[in-house]
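Dear Dr. H.,

I hope your travels went smoothly. While you were away I took the liberty of generating a structure for the chain from your last submission, since the lab meeting agenda had it listed for discussion. I wanted you to have the full record in hand beforehand rather than looking at slides cold. The sequence, exactly as received, is reproduced here:
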Amino acid sequence: MSPESTGQNEHYIRVIRRRFHAWRGNRPFWAGLFTMAGGLPIAYFPYANMHLGNVTLAMSTTAGAGSLIIGVLLVTLGLTMWFHHIVRVFAGVAAILLALISIPVANIGGFVIGFLLSLLGGALSLSWAPGEPRDDEAPPAEQAPDALSSRKGPAYAHRSDDLPHAAAVPQQRAAGPDPAPGAGGGSHRVG
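The corresponding predicted structure, in token form, is as follows:
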């Protein structure tokens, strides 16, 4: 081993930060964070008391228990998004539904703050998709042979590597006179 090895001289904060970034990249982190942040004001405001001088303002409603349940469920769904990202679609739909239910039940959804944060977290959870692992041994995109480029003729479009699930779409031919019947080399042409 060389005294220049990177594993021994790296500061422990960098190691923790790198591990956190790797952990965060494999799950809908921001979706869970926004969902939990939306659940807190929904659960807090019905039980909060504001003091203005000698006057105490209570925000409590008859549905205080309902807003507490909604807030706790939103925090639980946020944690589920973090630690069980396989059920992210269910957690996202449930977070959106609970955010909508919080409007009439929990002081207009935690004074709209909790509603918007929970709605955003649920939408982010629904839209998140796990990334595909990189293959370090694969050649760069410029050097990789294209599966569709080996086909002859202008009827096939060039596949873009930027789109992961792009399908080959036949190109439109320019309008003009049809070629002679024998010009196609005996092959049948559709379109």
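Two observations you may find useful: The two ends are 66 Å apart (CA to CA). The mean pLDDT is 77.

With kind regards,
E. W.
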